[in-house]
Structure to design on (624 residues):
């Protein structure tokens, strides 16, 4: 094999995955290059990168042209996309390759064959791997759903082909729901296609962490179980997948091998399946990138999957993959309120303490003072816990949660604490397997947590006072580190206090750690400890005057009504997106829209008005 030397690697991402990749880049002796937006100027990833450069004003991490221009300007050898953003965009991959830069991922052709849900179903059929029962063609009308359900029964699920991470999924239970669902209008407005499948309700979510090199060498690094989910997004993952029935491991390996060979896949991938109590194995999808939960596979094998990606991308061999030893569990710490149905929460992190000790690994991209906004997904950190056995790993999970402190923003740790006491997860059911399914969190756990909250028994999250920052003693001249931008490049400058001017001097820089950062370009990325009130998603949905308000801080992605329109109860009014989750706002009653004070693309806070709806009786009286 001919290998290439990758000396300068641009990481086209942010947060914990950017940190994860740049650490491996540093281990390999290469230079890490990180683009960032103003919100991430003071992020840990920007601090640790060898070189960090500001994206052009108004650009984001999905601005392919800006990222490629930066890569060319800085002479990079490779681009690692992380996950999310442009990681599964074959057009971006093609542009990178056309520019003579190594793309750390599969070929654009393989991405197209596997990244789209329709083409993935067709690929699975060619590979002889059974997908979940469904239709391998676009669904454009409710009648197609009704006809399919007449044969296979309800519930069924509509999936947007441009969805991902649990977004764009609609579950239907009846013909009436099929006729009234906003999914068709929403997909058409967004230029997306819908896929129809039977909803497999009583199943585990199992997957294989795979790798395949350019010579065709293939390995399953480990299996994983990712059954614990909410809104089709994973919360707890473990490796290897426990309590697999006889023969299932071998079937998983062969199915995964066939899928990747069929498309000539080169790189690291995850093949996902549903496993029913009867032993049926249904193909879900292939993720042509690194997964959030890759850490548990690394922990049980001692493999660095980022290094594997870079080695294969450079033309190197897969090499020997160690057999799994022990057990590893990943707890995703997200900004969601388990007492309110996992509603997204925002705010400033006023205090942060992660656990430590034997078997504990933390993957996080945030620090105290960071602002959690609806612009990105709700993941704060991953607590990865490993033991010599599953029992030891579970015990260490409980210790890790007891040591974890996050204040200023609501997080999901009470849910993890609860599920780790439940025998369905910790024990073995009567059939010799786990007693959980992909619907278990939503159907069995969240209602239990919500019950006391509805009765007012769950205290609200408050700001805990923090001690003042240490002051300098007599005779000491303290220093402050300032973050500056010079020709678009992020640099740190440490100076004795007072050297930049006396009291009242103004500087367009950010400083740490002895004083609160100053806002750059008028935008503070980090707030001093103890100054921000705790924040979470508000529960209000409407006021007495007919005003329907946002239940959380979010971005308005679509408005389906207008002033003067008549609507029926249940009609879709507004679509919100918060932390990569879609939230549909429906009309609570019949009436006429009298005001729509928001526009598409606008950011709204919890309790902000979205639509004013006069009841039908009022509008009838006015017309009379």
């Amino acid at each position: 094999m001919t290998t290439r030397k990758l000396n300068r690697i641009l990481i086209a991402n942010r947060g914990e995955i950017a940190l994860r990749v740049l650490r491996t880049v540093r281990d390999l002796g290469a230079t890490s290059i990180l683009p960032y937006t103003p919100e991430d100027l003071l992020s840990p990833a920007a601090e640790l990168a060898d070189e960090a450069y500001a994206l052009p004003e108004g650009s984001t991490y999905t601005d392919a042209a800006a990222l490629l221009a930066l890569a060319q300007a800085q002479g990079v050898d490779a681009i690692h996309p992380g996950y999310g953003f442009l990681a599964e965009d074959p057009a971006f991959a093609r542009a990178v390759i056309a520019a003579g830069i190594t793309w750390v991922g599969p070929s654009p052709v393989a991405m197209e064959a596997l990244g789209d849900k329709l083409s993935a179903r067709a690929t699975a059929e060619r590979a002889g791997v059974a997908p979940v029962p469904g239709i391998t063609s676009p669904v454009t009308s409710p009648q197609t759903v009704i006809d399919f359900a007449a044969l296979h029964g309800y519930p069924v699920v509509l999936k947007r082909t441009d969805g991902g991470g649990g977004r764009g999924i609609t579950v239907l239970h009846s013909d009436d729901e099929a006729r009234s669902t906003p999914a068709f209008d929403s997909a058409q407005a967004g230029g997306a296609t819908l896929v129809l499948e039977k909803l497999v309700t009583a199943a585990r979510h199992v997957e294989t962490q795979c790798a395949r090199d350019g010579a065709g060498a293939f390995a399953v690094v480990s299996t994983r179980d990712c059954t614990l989910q909410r809104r089709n997004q994973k919360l707890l993952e473990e490796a290897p997948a426990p309590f697999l029935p006889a023969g299932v491991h071998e079937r998983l390996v062969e199915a995964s091998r066939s899928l990747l060979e069929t498309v000539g896949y080169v790189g690291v991938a995850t093949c996902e399946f549903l496993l029913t109590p009867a032993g049926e194995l249904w193909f879900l999808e292939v993720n042509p990138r690194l997964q959030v939960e890759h850490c548990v596979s690394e922990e049980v094998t001692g493999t660095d999957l980022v290094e594997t990606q870079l080695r294969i991308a450079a033309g190197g061999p897969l090499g020997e993959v160690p057999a799994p030893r022990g057990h590893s569990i990943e707890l995703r710490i997200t900004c969601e309120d388990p007492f309110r149905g996992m509603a997204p929460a925002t705010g400033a992190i006023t205090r942060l303490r992660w656990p430590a000790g034997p078997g504990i690994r933390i993957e996080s991209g945030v620090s105290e003072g960071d602002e959690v906004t609806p612009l990105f997904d709700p993941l704060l950190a991953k607590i990865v816990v490993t033991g010599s056995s599953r029992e030891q790993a579970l015990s260490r999970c409980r210790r890790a949660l007891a040591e974890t402190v996050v204040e200023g923003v609501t997080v999901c740790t009470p849910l993890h604490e609860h599920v780790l006491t439940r025998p369905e997860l910790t024990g073995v059911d009567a059939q010799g397997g786990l007693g959980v399914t992909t619907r278990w969190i939503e159907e069995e756990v969240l209602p239990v947590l919500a019950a006391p909250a509805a009765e007012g028994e769950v205290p609200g999250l408050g700001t805990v006072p923090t001690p003042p920052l240490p002051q300098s003693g007599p005779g000491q001249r303290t220093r402050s580190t300032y973050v500056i931008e010079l020709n678009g490049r992020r640099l740190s400058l440490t100076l004795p206090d007072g050297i930049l001017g006396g009291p009242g001097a103004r500087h367009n820089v950010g400083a740490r750690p002895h004083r609160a950062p100053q806002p750059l370009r008028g935008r503070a990325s980090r707030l001093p400890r103890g100054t921000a009130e705790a924040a979470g998603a508000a529960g209000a949905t409407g006021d007495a005057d007919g005003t329907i308000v946002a239940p959380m801080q979010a971005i308005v992605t679509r408005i389906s009504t207008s002033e003067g329109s008549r609507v029926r109860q249940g009609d879709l009014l507004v679509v919100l997106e918060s932390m990569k989750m879609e939230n549909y706002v429906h009309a609570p009653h019949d009436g006429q829209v009298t005001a729509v004070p928001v526009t598409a693309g606008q950011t709204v806070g919890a309790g902000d008005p979205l639509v004013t709806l006069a009841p039908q009786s009022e509008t009838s009286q006015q017309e009379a």
